[in-house]
Amino acid sequence: MQPRDDFRAWLDDDSLQYSGRERTVAARRRLEGLSPIATFLRSVGGLEKPDDEPISAAIEALFADTEWVGALVQEWVAEAQEDPFFVPPFRPASGGFHESALLLELPVCTISLCVIDPGRLSARKQEGAGKGSIFFPGNRSWLKFIETGGLQMSFWEAPDCNDDDDAIETSPCVRTDIRGIDPGELISIDTATQSYLFDRAERSALFLHGELRVGGAVLAREYDAASGKRVGQSSGTEIWSRIQMMVSFLGLSGEREAAATFERIIDDAPFHLRWHVMREWVTLDPRSAMPRLTEMARNDAHHEVRWAARQTLALLRRHQCSEERPGCHSS
Amino acid sequence: MENQQIDIEELPELETSVAAYGSTVQEEVGGAQCIAVLLINPPNA
Q1: How is chain A split into domains, by residue range?
Q2: Helix or strand run (H / E) with residue A155
Q3: pTM for this predicted structure
Q4: Is there a contact between A270 and A219 (Cβ–Cβ < 8 Å)?
Q5: Which CATH number fits domain A15-235: 3.40.50.1970, 3.20.20.210, 3.30.230.10, 2.60.120.10?
Q6: DSSP state for residue B8 in the 8-state scheme
Q7: Residue numbers in A near B9 (CB within 8 A)
Q8: What is residue B31's three-state secondary structure?
Q9: Chain segment A99-150, per-residue pLDDT in tens
Q10: CB of B41 within 8 Å of any CB in chain A?
Q11: How far apart are CA B18 and CA A163, in angstroms?
Q12: In A129-217, which ranges are continuous DSSP H helix?
């Protein structure tokens, strides 16, 4: 591929590239300096601990008046007219039918500006023919519509589910509403038990999307769109998945001195991770794991964990028995 | 109890399997998961 002359000149000129980067940095400074965004950053950054209520309030305040979005986009257009190689100051993200600008990426929340392409949305719906899943990621989210584009959405509910409930929730998810979106509408949704689908749009739909990254559900749940039945679950937070991976590494590396770490993780972890940690612990050092394993077998909040711990205690007894008395058959 | 050698494959697993963050069984029809931002490395974390 041959670059056009102006692009060739840009590639060959370090000063042009440097000034381009400076433009992006300056645009970022102006973005963060816009009064609503600066207020939002102060509100969220000043929190001593990541509490979801004040962060939610800050997101709703930021979305109350969206004139700042127009100001931002106009500025980027003006920059691009002056310098066609201008890189706007955000990380782009895209999906099957939308493009997003990640305006703010914070440990506690994300704020993005999204546009839905009606043609791509329609193609996706036709291609999928209604097959697939409805996802309940487990976080609080906000959608603030700037241009509705004749968008129609459907809303869904899944049963409330405490991951430590003894009964595995088997009720299906159900559609509760299907409707058009009003200009300027703010949709606040807790995706632990509520979700939504973009069904169709007549024109491009533009909206702000805010999402909390703290205080969410332990599990994200996925339901089959046709039957409403639950088809899977995944960790609702990245942190627990990272911890799970690190515990596996400890196991693979044969780290036998990790008992105190395992104990601490089990104290706070969701049910699936409690058992994941205990499997590694028993494999590495069954003697130090025994008190906690016994406690799990008796009192763990989740019946599957209690069952697995009892099975493991029985297995350890059989191992011990056969070591002490070959031919022994302990039950 | 002597410290026995146990193979992890001998130990039971839970009936309810939980996948890693961001994993899905099916493709989403077009909603919350499509729009959600799955950040691998948030720059300010």
Answers
A1: 15-235, 238-324
A2: strand A152-157
A3: 0.86
A4: yes
A5: 2.60.120.10
A6: G
A7: none
A8: strand
A9: 999 999 998 899 999 999 999 999 988 887 878 999 999 999 999 999 999 9
A10: no
A11: 11
A12: none
